[in-house]
Structure formats: C-alpha cells, structure tokens
Design brief:
This protein has 11 helices and no strands. The chain is mainly α.
C-alpha cells in the first residue's frame, strides 16, 4: 500500500553551507582581537608582535594577515574598540549630532563619561600612555579619526552657543586634557592632586561637579556681559 500524504515524512530543508564558515571567521577574528589586549597586559606595547598574538590566541599567525591584512590593522581595530570617543560613546555622539542643538548638559555628560571611562579602564589608560610616548600609525590614525568626530561636536556646540567672548574649543581642550591627566594620575600612583583624592567618591564628585559649573559659569557670564 502507498503511504498517505499525512504519513509521508517532511522533506528536510537544505542546510546553508555559508553560515558555518562565516561564524568561524567571526570567532577567529574576535580571538585575535582579544589576544591583542592580553598581550598588552602581559608584555606591554613592545610585545605586540604577530608571534605573541598568535600564541595568546592559540591560532596560526597567518590568520592575522588573512583577516586583517597587517598587524597594524589588527591593533587599530582593538584600540578603536577601547577608545571612548570612537566606541564607548559612539551611540551617544550620533544622537547628539542628529539633535537640533548640543546643550551644555550634553557636553558635560560626555566629559564626565570620558573621565569615568579613563579612571576605570586599565587598558584605555595604557593606550593613552602609549599614545603620548610612542609614534605609531594605528594610534595616529585613531587620533585623527577622534579629531574628526570632535570637530563635528565642536561645530554643533559653537552653533548652539555662538557668543565669541569665550573660546569654547580652548576651554574644552583644557578640560579634556585635565580629566585625562587626573584619571591617569589617580590610577598610576593613587596620590592626591591639589589635595583632592580622585580615588574616593567625594573627590571624583568634586571634579565632576566642577566640570559642569565651569562650563555653566563661563557661558552664562559671557552671555550676561554681551547683554550689558
């Protein structure tokens, strides 16, 4: 007897042959990227060699060139992921650039977020030290890319507060550099700076509060002066 249609086994759908290799490639790339961070922790930046990265990842060193082209490209991917302005705050920055205005509070939040990130991220701290002390193509490319993003933010911020009595760019440069240094100083030796212990919640709050009040006071005083 012939089996009825109800008794026939459903036909199996053909399995996609591309999904496996694609996922495997992605996993391999992630292992190599993660290995860069592990090498930095163990050996510092002089240890960033293809051999060390391959050893740390447990993969063939040829895969660095297969998937990233060069060692510099692999390092660039890793440090971009660690950078606050290019990765950590990327969604926030995109939202701000789409907004009609860039408020003082939004800029303060970005600065405070940067301070918090550098203060707590050991790898980011090492990258900043590296950026200050070593000439490197990946780091220079990251710095240039960061400046491009910063230029868009600064333009919008100046459009939102067009008063020419204060140099907003110079003010933000000083604040940004100061926050980087305070975070690195607190992490490196744990001592106070100008009598403020950044390692305590109270000390950190004093810095965060002053970032906000400085920007607020300068812009408000400038606007009042213009009104007079």
């Amino acid at each position: 007897m012939q089996k009825s249609k109800m008794e026939e086994k459903p036909k199996k759908k053909p399995r996609k042959v591309t999904a496996g290799p694609i996922r495997e490639k992605a996993r391999t790339m992630e292992k190599l990227i993660a290995a860069v961070g592990k090498v930095i922790k163990k050996h510092g930046y002089p240890g960033l060699t293809v051999a060390n990265i391959a050893s740390e990842s447990g993969l063939d060193r040829k895969l660095v060139y297969t998937y990233f082209g060069t060692l510099d490209n692999l390092i660039e991917v890793y440090i971009t992921r660690q950078d606050y302005w290019k990765s950590k705050a990327n969604k926030q920055i995109e939202s701000l650039l789409q907004a009609e205005n860039l408020s003082k509070l939004a800029m303060v939040n970005l600065l405070q977020g940067q301070f918090e990130q550098v203060l707590n991220d050991k790898i980011l701290q090492r990258i900043i030290h590296w950026e200050l002390g070593v000439k490197s193509k990946p780091l220079r490319k990251l710095a240039d890319s960061r400046e491009e993003v910063g230029e868009l933010l600064l333009n919008k911020f100046e459009e939102s507060y067009p008063n020419k009595d204060i140099d907003l760019r110079a003010l933000l440069a000083i604040q940004t550099a100061g926050l980087y240094y305070l975070a690195l100083h607190a992490s490196s030796n744990g001592s106070t700076f100008c009598g403020i212990d950044i390692g305590t919640p109270e000390g950190k709050e004093r810095i965060n509060r002053t970032v906000e009040t400085t920007l607020e006071l300068l812009i408000n005083s400038s606007n009042q002066s213009k009104g007079d």
